[in-house]
Q: What sequence folds into this?
């Protein structure tokens, strides 16, 4: 098992990529500490892991709050005595042209998508430093390297995550802490379903989204989770500061 006896914090485990990653990590031997603002959904994911013979605990957490992120990491250390892997995965999308984005909307997207990554890394890294090893995987997006209409705030945060990844990798490589990010395409999650069916863009449909890709389809949660697993595991031991693009060829058309 690729994460045997490793302790992994995974945020955003109530649904989507976070849920898929947590379940896969447990299957690969990790002791999973899940976090999400959705207490019911997060607890359900932990229960799925336990029912399948894995080890998991769930801690309700607002990852935009420093006190709650600090408490999350401390609970993980208290329970397991170490922290080997951090997957910071939480994100939101608000779609408007820049001039129609309110200051409150901008701040909200920045807090959820970017500040959460900063806080999770800030409190996790000292524990990894003490053991002189660790792997951090941040969730960016294909929209971190390409732009699409009406996504100014989202694209800004996802591009910033790539820069944050590289900066942290440079600062903490001397402590044998690897930091990478994944840049997925449209992935079949509740967030995407809500986005497409919200009619923010009336011309958007599943068929149109599929056609944006060279492979003529969007991504699946398991496909992204397997990429996260690779970066979290020792199989990627030479990789740090990388932005892994897993986009079905979406960026080839941009």
A:
């Amino acid at each position: 098992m690729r994460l045997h006896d490793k302790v992994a914090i995974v945020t955003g485990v109530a649904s989507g990529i976070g849920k898929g990653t947590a379940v896969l990590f447990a299957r690969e031997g990790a002791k999973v500490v899940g976090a999400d603002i959705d207490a019911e959904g997060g607890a359900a994911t932990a229960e799925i892991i336990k029912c399948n013979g894995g080890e998991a605990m769930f801690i309700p957490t607002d990852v935009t709050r420093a006190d709650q992120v600090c408490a999350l990491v401390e609970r993980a250390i208290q329970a397991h005595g170490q922290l080997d892997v951090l997957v910071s995965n939480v994100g939101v999308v608000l779609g408007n042209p820049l001039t129609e984005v309110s200051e409150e909307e901008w701040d909200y997207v920045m807090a959820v998508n970017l500040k959460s990554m900063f806080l999770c890394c800030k409190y996790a890294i000292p524990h990894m430093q003490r053991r002189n090893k660790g792997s951090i995987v941040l969730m960016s997006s294909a929209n971190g390297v390409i732009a699409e209409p009406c996504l100014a705030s989202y694209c800004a945060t996802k591009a910033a995550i790539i820069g944050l990844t590289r900066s942290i990798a440079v600062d903490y490589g001397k402590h044998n802490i690897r930091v990478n990010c994944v840049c997925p395409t449209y992935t079949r999650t509740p967030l995407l379903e809500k986005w497409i069916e919200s009619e923010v863009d009336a011309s958007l449909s599943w068929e149109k989204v599929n056609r944006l890709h060279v492979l003529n389809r969007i991504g699946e949660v398991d496909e992204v989770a397997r990429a996260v697993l690779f970066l979290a595991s020792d199989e990627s031991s030479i990789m740090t500061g990388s932005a892994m693009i897993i986009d079905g060829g979406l960026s080839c058309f941009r």
About this structure: The chain is about 45% helix and 15% strand. The first strand starts at residue 7 and ends at 11. Residues 103-131 form the longest helix (29 residues).
